[in-house]
């Protein structure tokens, strides 16, 4: 919701270009999800300083975004008819990236025993 809201605000209201708007909206969404995870999902799970934890989390999210885009494009290449149904490859990419992001976050930034 944060990603879509910020992108829409920047593109429609501020008449921003799509790529810069998406970069800003992605950064805003990652920041919000990190804050939620920091407070709820993985509270107390990291021994890193907050800025180092945030940097690691952001890097993992960037890798997840690349995976999501890769799966999306692979689906479209293998099944060209999905071009008319972009939510399907988008959901596939998002699901794979979600598993990747969670697994890598849990095993690198946060200890499994402290995760809620």
Please give a structural write-up.
It is a single chain. The protein has helices at 2-13, 18-41, 50-78, 87-109. Helix 1 packs antiparallel against helix 2, helix 2 (18-41) packs across helix 3 (50-78) and helix 3 packs antiparallel against helix 4. The protein has 116 residues and is an all-alpha fold. It has two domains: 1-41; 44-116.
Largest sheet: none
Structural class: mainly alpha
Report how far apart the termini are: 23 Å
Helical proportion, percent range: over 70%
Cα radius of gyration in angstroms: 16 Å
Categorize the overall geometry: flat
Task: Kindly state the number of beta strands.
Answer: 0
**Portion in beta strands:** under 5%
Mean pLDDT over the full residue set = 87
- What is the count of distinct domains? 2
- The topology string of helices and strands comes to HHHH
Low-pLDDT stretches:
none
* SS element count, helices: 4
List the helices and strands and how they pair.
Layout: H1 2-13, H2 18-41, H3 50-78, H4 87-109
Helix pairs in contact: 1-2, 2-3, 3-4
Summarize this structure as a short list of keywords or feature phrases.
116 residues, mainly alpha, 2 domains
What's a quick, concise take on this entry?
With about 120 residues, the protein is an all-alpha fold. The chain is built from 4 helices and no strands.
């Amino acid at each position: 919701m944060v990603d879509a809201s910020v992108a829409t605000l920047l593109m429609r209201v501020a008449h921003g270009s799509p790529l810069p708007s998406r970069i800003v909206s992605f950064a805003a969404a990652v920041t919000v999800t990190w804050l939620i995870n920091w407070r709820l999902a993985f509270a107390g799970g990291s021994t890193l300083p907050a800025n180092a934890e945030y940097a690691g989390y952001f890097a993992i999210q960037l890798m997840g975004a690349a995976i999501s885009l890769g799966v999306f494009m692979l689906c479209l290449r293998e099944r060209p008819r999905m071009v008319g149904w972009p939510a399907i490859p988008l959901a596939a990419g998002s699901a794979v990236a979600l598993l990747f992001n969670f697994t890598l976050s849990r095993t690198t930034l946060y200890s499994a025993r402290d995760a809620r």
